[in-house]
């Protein structure tokens, strides 16, 4: 199977509509990518790896090197989905030139096809600059976790008219600037619908609306790796329970010398 491309993702939305919603999940490791790849149109190497993989309190400390290493693993582990890599906080906001240098590094180091960055209006010029120079960009509006210190938390955005207007304007600016798709995270539903109906490119919702042109979740949240997840997550599995029960069984067999048995032990040739 040939790998999907960014233009194919973009072309999924025609005349303001998608026939079938786009499917995106996060992946940070080769094995995770192998397992998720065939089911997804896009794999996102999200900077949410901060919390999920590294136990960090926010995405602020994530570095370009961390993103490049995980993105390379995900590209090696997949052959079907488009791999998109998050630009970490501090690697693109200063100027469009800084953004190009960081994005080029990420794509060279990993083989990913595109980057995602947070922000709307303020990032529009940067999105156009990158796109014109060979780097497709996915936008991300609404709750933008890298701005947690400005927003003051991870609550849903757009509850006031002014904020709603700002978020819709952000998405329209990214659309105009040439973003190939836009993630809408953590907003009250009418905003997600208004954006989806008013931008040419596919919208990918997370805590947004079932009427977005696609959906994304953090894979570990959806797989049931964590006890506490945001309201917008639906747990489709319970791998935390599976891992815990399996580790308990292993520990018990090691302690009782039931493992390793004859089957797991080499003997010299007779
Ligand atoms: O980092 C991430 O996982 C993301 C998605 C939740 C959109 O940005
Ligand atoms: Na992210």
TrEMBL record:
Mg(2+) binds at residues 47, 86, 118. The keyword Cytoplasm applies. Binds 1 Mg(2+) ion per subunit. Keywords: Cytoplasm, Magnesium, Metal-binding, Methyltransferase, Pantothenate biosynthesis, Transferase. The keyword NAD does not apply. One of its GO terms (cellular component) is cytoplasm. It comes from the Bacteria. The active site is at 185 (proton acceptor). Its EC number is 2.1.2.11. Its main location: cytoplasm. SUPFAM superfamilies: Phosphoenolpyruvate/pyruvate domain (SSF51621). InterPro entries: Pantoate_hydroxy_MeTrfase, Pyrv/PenolPyrv_kinase-like_dom, Pyrv_kinase-like_dom_sf. Its cofactor is Mg(2+). It is an enzyme of class 2 (transferase). It is found in: Cytoplasm. GO terms for molecular function: 3-methyl-2-oxobutanoate hydroxymethyltransferase activity; magnesium ion binding; methyltransferase activity. 3-methyl-2-oxobutanoate binds at residues 47-48, 86, 116. It catalyses: (6R)-5,10-methylene-5,6,7,8-tetrahydrofolate + 3-methyl-2-oxobutanoate + H2O = 2-dehydropantoate + (6S)-5,6,7,8-tetrahydrofolate. It holds the Pfam family Pantoate_transf. Gene3D superfamilies: Phosphoenolpyruvate-binding domains. CDD domains: KPHMT-like. Homodecamer; pentamer of dimers. NCBIfam families: panB, PRK00311.1. Belongs to the PanB family. Catalyzes the reversible reaction in which hydroxymethyl group from 5,10-methylenetetrahydrofolate is transferred onto alpha-ketoisovalerate to form ketopantoate. This is 3-methyl-2-oxobutanoate hydroxymethyltransferase. The lineage of its organism: Bacteria, Pseudomonadati, Pseudomonadota, Alphaproteobacteria, Sphingomonadales. The gene is panB.
């Amino acid at each position: 199977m040939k790998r999907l491309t960014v233009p194919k993702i973009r072309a999924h939305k025609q005349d303001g509509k998608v026939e079938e919603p786009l499917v995106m999940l996060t992946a940070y490791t080769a094995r995770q990518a192998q397992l998720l790849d065939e089911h997804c149109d896009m794999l996102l190497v999200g900077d949410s790896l901060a919390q999920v993989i590294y136990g960090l309190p926010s995405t602020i400390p994530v570095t370009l090197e961390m993103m490049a290493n995980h993105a390379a693993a995900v590209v090696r582990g997949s052959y079907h989905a488009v791999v998109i890599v998050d630009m970490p906080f501090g690697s693109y906001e200063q100027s469009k030139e800084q953004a190009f240098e960081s994005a080029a590094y990420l794509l060279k180091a990993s083989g990913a096809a595109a980057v995602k960055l947070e922000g709307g209006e303020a990032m529009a010029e940067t999105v156009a600059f990158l796109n014109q120079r060979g780097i497709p960009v996915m936008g991300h509006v609404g709750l933008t976790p890298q701005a947690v210190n400005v927003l003051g938390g991870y609550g849903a955005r757009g509850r006031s008219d002014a904020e709603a207007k700002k978020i819709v304007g952000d998405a329209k600016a990214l659309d105009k600037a040439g973003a190939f798709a836009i993630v809408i995270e953590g907003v009250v539903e009418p905003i997600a619908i208004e954006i989806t109906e008013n931008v040419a490119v596919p919208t990918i919702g997370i805590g947004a609306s079932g009427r977005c042109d696609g959906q994304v979740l953090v894979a570990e949240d959806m797989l049931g790796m964590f006890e506490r997840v945001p309201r917008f997550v639906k747990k489709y599995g319970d791998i935390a329970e599976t891992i815990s029960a399996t580790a308990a069984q292993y520990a018990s067999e090691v302690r009782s010398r039931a493992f390793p048995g004859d089957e797991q032990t080499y003997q010299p040739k007779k």
